[in-house]
Amino acid sequence: MPQQGNRLDGIFANLLERRQSRNQLRKLTTVPEGSVDFSSNAYLSLSSQPAVQRAFLARLQAAIGGPPLLGSGGSRLLDGNSSRAESLERTIAAFHRAPAALLFNSAMDANMGLFACVPQPGDVVVYDELIHASVHDGMRLSRASKRIPFAHSHIWERNSSSVTETKDNHPVGKSLDTILQSLLQGPEGTLFQSGARNVFIAVEAVYSMAGDLAPLTEIVECVEYRLPQGNGYIIVDEAHSTGIFGDRGRGLVCELGLENRVWARVLGFGKAVGCAGGLILCTTTTRAYLINYARTLIYTTAMALPSLAGIETAYDFLSSGQAEPLLVHLRLLIRETHALLLALCARHNPPAELFRVSLEEPRSPVIPVLTSRPRSLAEHCQRRGYMVRPIVAPTVPRGKERIRVCLHAGNTRGEVEGLVQALEAWLVAWKTGGVGGDLDAGGAGQDSSVSGGAGRGKAKL
To answer: How many CA atoms lie within 13 A of 103 on its CB side?
Structure first.
């Protein structure tokens, strides 16, 4: 190997060692055979449903002798487009009550392509501080003049005379309303007041690390109030709400009846839908614009037929109502799991920094268990056959480390009870001095969540 390469490897090794010293080193792992899944995003367990598997295989069988099965042949602007892809886009747009849709190879590609090309010079992007990394990547490539975060799900200021608040001695950033007001001030304020410049507001319907829902109705009302000229464009990432919320899984925007007040929605098919790929719901004009300017669409090979067939199969399953029994079971499991976790806290009353769960009953299948020793707790559960993952900084803010319990329609009550028993064994070991593993991550803060019944209200995760 050339000496220059060796020097570069040395730089990389030092950076990796630094990350290891902070207990933040990422590694690829595989799920041991026989483990109970409390980690993946496949909330409806669609890919393991026999009816879905049979329908998918039937589609592939019917396609033999037609277009190539294993590749699309190029980008959609060259040879990779197909009538099947365009038909699927129309079907999904109609299902989600949108004018048009455009497929991407992933939700990450969709977000990057959208945010990179849509803001025009002088426009501003205002985003929830916990927005997904793909939105950050797209914003960095955009021509927006400013990118401004607002405090997570903090829409209106309680005290309009202040721009910041504190909660449990921790600073809370500016609200969405405060930021929109600030854009209307100063020399450039008239451009936003008149509608000559645009503001794009980026939020997620469900935030995957905490499982909490965005207050979408409040967001829409705030944007329409401050930007009455219609130059406030809300973009909702529905990757973790598609298939779970709304009639037959149409998403949170549809559940709240906001289809005509949200400018664009980004869907991800790798979660509850159980496939791969992404899609943007938008107007027909925006779709045409993205075809011309979204580089993550233009310069990549299009989806092959098996990917399209998988998405078709999943949407047939959802739209026909066959997923409803799975949703009923999943919602029951969410309530039961949360109740078991609260009972566990009440029995052992662990310190808040070691183990705590929000008092508020979760609405999504993601239940975070905040702990200053996420790796130790996750490894303990994994050794007992329950796959949960530690979530550490920088994925979540320092002091907000956790394990993330993801529930699925394929999980049983017995599996949940087994996981809670594993968590309890870890807490018992802590009481007797038997907990080892990772170093304390610096505490988990004092926000309003529960450890042994202490605290009230929704945690700021």
So the answer is: 30
Distance CA 443, CA 373 (A): 9
Looking at the whole model, is its pTM more than 0.70?
A: yes
Query: pLDDT tens-digit profile of 383-411?
Result: 999 999 999 988 888 889 999 999 999 99
In the chain the domains, ranked by start, together with CATH numbers, are 28-44+324-431 (3.90.1150.10), 69-319 (3.40.640.10)
The whole-angstrom separation of Cα 25 and Cα 413 is 34
Residue 408 CB coordination number (10 Å): 25
Residue 81 CB neighbour total at 10 angstroms: 17
Contact 226, 149 (CB under 8 A): no
CA 355/CA 377 separation, integer angstroms: 10
Q: How many CB atoms lie within 10 A of CB 83?
A: 8
The separation between CA 181 and the C-alpha centre of its own chain, rounded to angstroms, equals 28
Q: Is the peptide bond before 394 cis (omega within 30 degrees of 0)?
A: yes
